[in-house]
Amino acid sequence: MLRLVFPPAPRVLRSPVAPARLVQCVSEKTAECGAAWTSPGGPQGMAHIHDSDGSSSSSHQTPKSTAKWASSLENLLEDPEGVKRFREFLKKEFSEENVLFWLACEDFKKTQDKKQMQEKAKEIYMTFLSSKASSQVNVEGQSRLNEKILEEPHPLMFQKLQDQIFNLMKYDSYSRFLKSDLFLKHKRTEEEDEESPDAQTAAKRASRIYNT
């Protein structure tokens, strides 16, 4: 009598569970994760927010990103790559604290837990607004802020100061950024990529598929 011998079933290897923070970051919008900030020389408690040295490869850049950046400051700040390049430019002008403060306020407004809100409010105050701030921003009304109001924070407590910084960037540093070598270099790179043979071949292939 013939006996059929079957090989043992293969073992299934289970992947380790990803950390909760990683899952959360991946599930969030790219702009929200990529456009976060870390204050230079600020409290260590801010290390949970992404920091960038401004370096990035062109592969991370979406087509026509410079056109999006040039359309408005709002669009630039919604693009993680745009935020990196704008920060890189502001570092050279010694005013990076402006965009870091704006980003910190955006992150603060999304905070719902009261304890976390108190911690972040104190971090923002100590880093950007107090007389001993390591990266102090120059805004009207900051002298009226004190640590007492940090005990009862609310999402819009920094809104007026954030708007001042936004307008300062919009009518000052942002216009210079669009004329800077850094921005123009990226714009030329995009134009060269569009004119490359590979890009033209892909465009022709797409055109043929569309017309069939």
From TrEMBL:
Matching InterPro entries? RGS, RGS10/12/14-like, RGS10_RGS, RGS_sf, RGS_subdom1/3, RGS_subdomain_2
Q: Which residues form the RGS domain?
A: 72-185
The entry's keywords: GTPase activation, Signal transduction inhibitor
Molecular function (GO) terms for this protein are:
G-protein alpha-subunit binding; GTPase activator activity
Q: Which residues form a coiled coil?
A: none
Which source organism does the UniProt entry give?
A: Bison bison bison
Region (Disordered), start-end ranges = 36-67, 188-212
Work out whether the entry's keyword set contains Kinase: no
Gene Ontology terms: biological process: negative regulation of signal transduction; regulation of G protein-coupled receptor signaling pathway
**What is this protein's name?**
Regulator of G-protein signaling 10 isoform X1
One of the record's GO cellular component terms: nucleus
Which SUPFAM superfamilies does the entry link to?
Answer: Regulator of G-protein signaling, RGS
Does this entry carry the keyword Transferase? no
